[in-house]
Amino acid sequence: MNPLLAIEDLRVSFGSGLGRRHAKEVLHGISMSIEAGETLGLVGESGSGKTTIGRAVLGLTAASGGRIVFDGQQISHLNMAQRRKLAKNLQAVFQDPYTSLNPALTISDVLSEPLIAQGSGSSEARTVIADLLDKVGLPSDSARRLPREFSGGQRQRIAIARALALDPKLIVCDEPVSSLDLSTQGKVLDLLIEIQERTGVAYLFISHDLAVVRHISHRVAVLRGGHIVETGSARQVTSEPEHAYTKQLLLASPVADPIAQKERRERRSRLTALDSPSDRLVKDA
Ligand SMILES: Nc1ncnc2c1ncn2[C@@H]1O[C@H](COP(=O)(O)OP(=O)(O)OP(=O)(O)O)[C@@H](O)[C@H]1O
Ligand SMILES: [Mg+2]
Predict the structure, then answer these.
(1) pLDDT digit string (tens) for 1-51?
(2) Residue ID of nearest Cα to ligand 1 atom 4
(3) Fewer Cβ within 10 Å of end Cβ, the chain: N or C?
C-alpha cells in the first residue's frame, strides 16, 4: 500500500528571487514517508530545516525540487483552490498558542470557521464543536469565551481541536508543546496520542527535543543541515542511535538528575571532539 505522505528528494532554496546564484539551498534532497495512523517524529537542532519541511508539506513554502505526494495526489504545486480542498485532510498545529488564535474571535468562531468553509450549517457546527471541546478535554462553555481567557496549554488544546475539526488524515505539528511547561507538555502529548488511537490520524511531529519525540513517535527521522542523517523506529533511534550526531542530540535532552546530567555533558563533549567530517555524509533517507 502507498504511504499517506511521501516526500521524495525535496529541495527548498531561499532567496531565489535574486536569481539562482544567490539562492541558498536549505533542504538538500529530503525523502521520507508517513503511513496512515502513524507518527513520524522529526528532530534536529535549530536551523536544520524541520519547520521548512513542515511548511513545504503545507504549501506555505515552495519546493525548488522533488515531489510531495499526499493520499495519492502530488501536492507540491497546487493552486489556492486545490489547497483549500486539501485542508480537509491536511491540517497543522504550530508552536505558539498565543499568536496562532485570533484574539478577537470566540472559541466557537475559531472552531466553526473550518466547518462552515467546508459546507456545514450552523446547528451542525454547534454539535461538532461541543464534541471537539470534549475530545480535547475542555469544558463546553469554552465555546463562548475568548482566547485570552485560557492558559497556554488550554490554547494548544483549542488549536488541536481546530486542526481536528474536519477529521483530517494528517496533522503537521511543529513544536506543538515547546512553549509549555513540562507537566503540561506531557498532558498535551498524551492527548495527541489518545486522539490518534481514536481517530487514526497521522502526525508529522516536529521537535528539537528528542525526549518529546521519543514519547509520541512510532518512527523518528533525524535532520542535520538540511539532510536526513538517520531514520528508524523511535526506540532504535532514541536508545541505540547509529549516527554520532543523534548520540549528541540524545545527550542534549534534559534530564532531572544533576549527576546524570554532568555525565551526559562530559560524554557529549567527548563526542563533539570525535565528530569527523565523514559523519556529515547523508546516510539514509
Ligand atoms: N523565509 C526564509 N528565508 C530565508 N531563509 C530561511 C527562511 N526560513 C528559513 N530559512 C533558513 O532555513 C534554514 C532552516 O530553517 P528552519 O526554520 O526550517 O529550521 P528549524 O529546524 O525549524 O529550526 P528551529 O528549531 O529553530 O525552529 C535556516 O538556516 C533558516 O535561516
Ligand atoms: Mg522550526
Answers:
(1) 799 999 999 999 998 566 666 789 999 999 999 999 999 999 999 999 999
(2) 14
(3) N
Q: Are 69 and 31 in contact (CB under 8 A)?
A: no
Q: Which residue has the cell 466557537?
A: 108
CA atoms lying within 13 Å on the CB side of residue 214: 14
Q: Give the number of whichever ligand sits closest to the CA of residue 62.
A: 1
How far is the CA of 145 from the CAs of 76, 158, 188, 267, 270, in angstroms? Answer: 37, 11, 21, 49, 52
**For the chain, how far is it from start to end, CA to CA, in angstroms?**
19
In a 3-state reduction of DSSP, which class is residue 199? helix
Q: What does the pLDDT look like over 132-162, one tens digit per residue?
A: 999 999 999 999 999 999 999 999 999 999 9
| pLDDT tens, residue by residue, 172-199 | 999 999 999 988 999 999 999 999 999 9
Q: Is 44 in the pocket of ligand 1 (CB under 6 A)?
A: yes
Cell numbers at residue 55, please?
A: 511548511
**47 Cβ closer than 6 Å to some ligand 1 atom:** yes
